[in-house]
Specification:
Layout: H1 19-42, H2 45-52, H3 56-63, H4 66-82, H5 96-114, H6 117-129, H7 134-161, H8 170-191, H9 199-217
Length: 220
């Protein structure tokens, strides 16, 4: 029986609590390595099956085909990367220093999460395949939007209502904040994989971006 799918037609990967689900988890783990190393076109389902310790028909039973396996892997890796990052605390005291510290710590943690090599490698792979799989781009955007952007937009909205920030368009403000803190480093590291982001680079970039953000949107 094929796996359940979400609204994108992407298989939902269950927690490995049964023999069948453990096989599915092994397939996903093997597929991650194969896709990242070889790319989508060159990745071999036979090699994935051998690495996972399952038969090729088992992979097709769980995921239908190579395309759906690729989509499931992307969704799973990205979701796992974002899980565990606590949302920005909305009860920040009404003090510029407290808000600055909270934003800086949150965005530095977020940056470290998405600038790790596995996520950057997957991002490069998705960029290369989005023409073939436009749903892949929509999937990446949807997960990032729901798990990362939307909670920050809600927090900025609430801080604006409390008078801690003066941000009439919270969504635009958040896009600008992400661009000034994470966006530049992400762009460089995506297309120059030989470059590495040191902790001091991340911390310095985030701190400077937060400072600019607060200089414009901080309550005056």
């Amino acid at each position: 029986m094929a796996a359940d799918v979400d609204e994108y037609g992407i298989p939902i990967i269950a927690d490995p609590v049964s023999s069948s689900e453990r096989k599915r988890a092994s397939i996903v783990e093997a597929a991650v390595g194969e896709f990242l190393r070889e790319g989508y076109a060159a990745a071999s389902v036979d090699k994935i099956a051998r690495r996972a310790g399952v038969s090729k028909p088992t992979i097709y039973q769980h995921f239908g085909n190579k395309e759906r396996l690729f989509l499931a892997v992307t969704a799973g890796v990205l979701t796992e990367a974002y899980e565990g990052l606590e949302p920005l605390d909305r009860s920040i005291p009404d003090e510029p220093g407290a808000l600055r510290s909270a934003l800086t710590a949150y965005l530095a943690a977020w940056s470290r999460r998405v600038l790790c090599e596995d996520i950057l490698a997957l991002r490069r792979l998705v960029i290369g395949e989005v023409g073939r799989f436009p749903q892949l781009g929509r999937l990446w955007f949807k997960i990032t939007r729901e798990m990362m952007d939307a909670p920050l937009i809600e927090t900025v909205t609430e801080l604006g209502a409390r008078g801690v920030l003066d941000a009439p368009d919270p969504e635009r403000a958040v896009r600008q904040l992400i661009g000034m803190t994470l966006g530049g480093l992400q762009l460089v590291l995506t297309f120059l994989p030989e470059e590495k982001a040191e902790d001091r680079d991340i911390d310095g970039t985030v701190a400077a971006g937060v400072e600019v953000f607060l200089s414009h949107y901080g309550h005056r």
